[in-house]
């Protein structure tokens, strides 16, 4: 029970990496609030997670709604010990075809949303808390089509270092987990049919030194580590969980 008596807030906790992390946190003894935009998906997730989970409908692009959700989690649980700012959307269009509203929505969700989630949480976090931000290998790879997404995630990394400096006096740690391709609904059509999934897996396997796609649980176990006291001296770092993609030539 590495998170006994701990409380956590996970944005985007109704699916994929966020939900897998919520499962690990609850299994390790934490009380967990999860956010998302879709109430039905959140309720389903909470039924799955059990009585130590709470669902809060909140869009991270809505600063007031984010503040309200964080305040409600703190009201129910008391102070927060862990924040996983995880909510994010993809965005893959070639630069010439990227509409302003698409670019802005990716930045508003993946970067602005992360910042204002952290800001909203500051007054509710215990000293010694752990903040984990969700980055991405895309921020260092230069894959075609990902200008907005890569910029948003590179911003997350840069922001984490600043937040780590600012929050160190309170003993609050701020780190980034940066997944490689991971099997979640974010991939949409690429996983929509068994044939599409096999083709996608083969493509990822061919470009991943460890030879397979990541699973949400791979990321969840890393977030659990960063959230726990075992990572007590890790501050301002980015941990890639990508099967070796960013370390290969
Ligand atoms: P999913 O699509 O499975 O989950 C995304 C979650 O974020 C959902 O719970 C979704 O709920 C929520 N969400 C999306 N937009 C908002 C919003 N505006 N406000 C609140 N919640 C929101 O994707 P993943 O689990 O794969 O993605 C989680 C994070 O991991 C993202 O930041 C993503 O960029 C990052 N990542 C994922 C990789 C992958 O290969 N899967 C690789 C690298 C990084 P709802 O739609 O109901 O709002």
From TrEMBL:
* Xref: Pfam families: adh_short_C2 (PF13561)
- Which superkingdom does the taxonomy of this entry point to? Bacteria
SMART domains per record = PKS_KR
Q: Which PROSITE patterns match?
A: ADH_SHORT
Hydrolase keyword on record: no
Where does the record locate the signal sequence feature? none
Q: Which UniProt keywords apply?
A: Oxidoreductase
Keyword Oxidoreductase included in the entry's annotation: yes
The record's listing under InterPro entries reads:
KR_dom (IPR057326), NAD(P)-bd_dom_sf (IPR036291), Sc_DH/Rdtase_CS (IPR020904), SDR_fam (IPR002347)
Show where the Ketoreductase domain sits. 6-180
Tell me which family the UniProt entry assigns to this protein.
Answer: Belongs to the short-chain dehydrogenases/reductases (SDR) family.
Recorded protein name is: SDR family oxidoreductase
Species of the source: Bradyrhizobium denitrificans
